Amino acid sequence: MVIKKKTSVPVTLKKTLTGIKGFDEITFGGVPKGRSTLIVGGPGSGKTVFSMEFLVQGIRHWNEPGLFISFEETFVDLVENFGSMGYDLNKLSKEGKLIIDQIVIKSGDVRESGEYNLDGLFSRMEHYIVTNNVKRVVIDTIEALFSKIPSEVILRSELRRLFLWLKSKGVTALITAEPGQYMMTRHGIEEYVADCLIILDLRIFEQLMTRRLRIMKYRGSAHGTNEYPFIIDNTGFSVLPITSIGLEHKISSDFLSSGIQGMDELLGGKGFYRGSSIVISGMAGSGKSIFAASVCNTACEQGLKCLYLSSEESHDQVIRNMKSVGLDLEPWVKKDLLKFSASRPNSNGLESHLLTIYDLTESFKPDVVVFDPVTNLTTVGSINEVKSMLTRMMDYLKKNLITTVLTDLTSGGAVPEHTNVKISSLIDSWVVLAVAREKSKRKRELFIMKTRGIASSPNVYDFAITYRGIEIFKNDQMQEEKLVA
Amino acid sequence: MENKKEKEPVPETWQLRLYVAGETARSVAAISNLRKICEEYLAGHYHLEVIDVFKVPMLGIEDQVVAIPTLIKRQPQPERRIIGNLSNTEEVLASLDIKRGT
Prior knowledge:
The complex is a heterodimer. By secondary structure, chain A is of the alpha/beta class. Chain A folds into 2 domains: 5-239, P-loop containing nucleotide triphosphate hydrolases (Rossmann fold, 3-Layer(aba) Sandwich); 255-482, 3-Layer(aba) Sandwich (Rossmann fold), CATH 3.40.50. Chain A has 14 helices and 23 strands. In chain A, helix 13 (350-364) packs parallel to helix 14. Chain B is α+β, with helices and mostly antiparallel strands. Chain B is 36% helix and 24% strand. Chain B has helices spanning 2-7, 25-42, 57-62, 89-95; strands at 14-20, 46-52, 70-75, 80-83. The interface between A and B is medium-sized, with 27 and 35 residues. Strand 6 (110-112) of chain A pairs parallel with strand 4 of chain B, so a sheet runs across the interface.
């Protein structure tokens, strides 16, 4: 996102934080305070979850009681559905903080004789707002009224009155609606609530379900204009800003050693910048994982914490393999300096994978994150989707001054200078590992494709994988007797 | 069983509940329209409660009243609802199951 916070938010527009992960960031502070926001989405798009979370977070963080007017789901259904997200609606409702009011309009036996209005609905809401000091109101979904109230003329004028009335009560409201074919909502309700309009959308692409959120309109406020992926999982609703923080990273001038003999010298003597992003690319068996593990090992030696995300090998497998090249990672695991997380991204989908990384990072607070190999992500998403996910991940890690090490598998025959996941522009340092065939043996070579802000060596170097890890040779000083691979 | 059969010819009592909101022209009209109909067709056989949803909100909530005015015929069964200021006498009579001339 490129919009700058300070310049574009008028002082006059007050906002209410929703407490929904990511949403407050992309709206620079939440929904308009004391007004109604329209949430538009088809069945299953997450309208109810979004709205309910708005109320629950309001109670949790700001002690603002909420009223949920439900035209569709029963109290029992809502309690059950949200129970799986860890929200105890029953408890909140017993404490008087959350009022869930189901309105069942009997449409069958109702006749009309003369004029009427919706004061029944108004008096009902007023009763709850006054007795429970309600600050946040949800109406889910307003469309239900259209099938129940016989006169559309009366209903429309009453809706107009409803939104003005909600404003006069000083409550911040979310109104959910269904999308329409010719208008944004099925019955054109956007005409009455014009301050803020949010669209939720559910798409299935290559058998993967993606949810997107877009802010169609936000009068008087800057907002992100992208479509933001979001997920609904057992922690609720999370919006994942494509790039939430622009490029205003804090930067570090401290270094992190690569832990590889000879490597730091190629990088100007001190290693990589801390908080930078590093890619190690190469073909299968070129030593990428060993390279990454060396960085981990050195970081742990200095008392730094590392998170090792493995999408191929299990925790035990990595430990065993690294032992064979002289890297004993086990003590670091025991000292809680190194944490492994092995999961195949296809079991989750990109967005939940990203969220898992966020969660692990929040809880473990690592200094270094290794992602080995990042290439496996392309099995779950298109190149663009993977790139978008990685951009967000790297931004996030960078913002937290976490050094990121990604390994990227180059497929056979591909140009080694291409990263498979097209992320070269995002990374600060890029080391290419290559295997060349020379007579009867394979020769390992390494070079630094780029390092931002470091005067690195332009040469290609030979290296070997020995029982002491990776060793880099200068000027062909191959010491063949040490080779194990 | 015997008793019940004997009592059947006795006219039933119409239990009516009318929901209004404040003293608006629409509410006042609904009340007077309904009273007129009741006196004309149900004299002595009806019980009418008039409830202001802003004064007694809980009753309206229990009865799921959204539109105002709403008239609910609780007895005789089946329960019927009619919304509006009750200006259309024909509609009111039909939904209250009142047969003319009886």
